[in-house]
Design goal:
It is built from 2 helices and 4 strands, in the order H-E-E-H-E-E. It is an alpha/beta fold. The protein has one domain (2-61). The longest helix is centred in the middle third of the chain and has 16 residues, at 33-48. The protein is elongated, with a radius of gyration of 13 Å. The relative contact order is 0.25.
């Protein structure tokens, strides 16, 4: 699990200053907007419970060129 890896790799004193990012694949754009929002809200809620820095209004869709 990425959270466990991060907790082992980053000193605990730095957790609050270590950013976490949420990226979605381009397939997310294919979903209805309500479904996208439900998924993103669930991810944000989970990630906000982690001890790392997370800005819940920032996420990115990864482009597939």
């Amino acid at each position: 699990m990425p959270r466990q890896y991060a907790k082992q790799s980053v000193p605990e004193s730095q957790w609050a200053y270590t950013p976490m990012y949420l990226y979605a694949t381009a397939g997310m754009r294919l979903l209805p907007i309500d479904t996208q929002n439900q998924i993103l809200d669930s991810c944000r809620s989970t990630m906000k419970s982690y001890p790392f820095l997370f800005r819940s209004k920032v996420y990115h869709s990864i482009r597939c060129d």
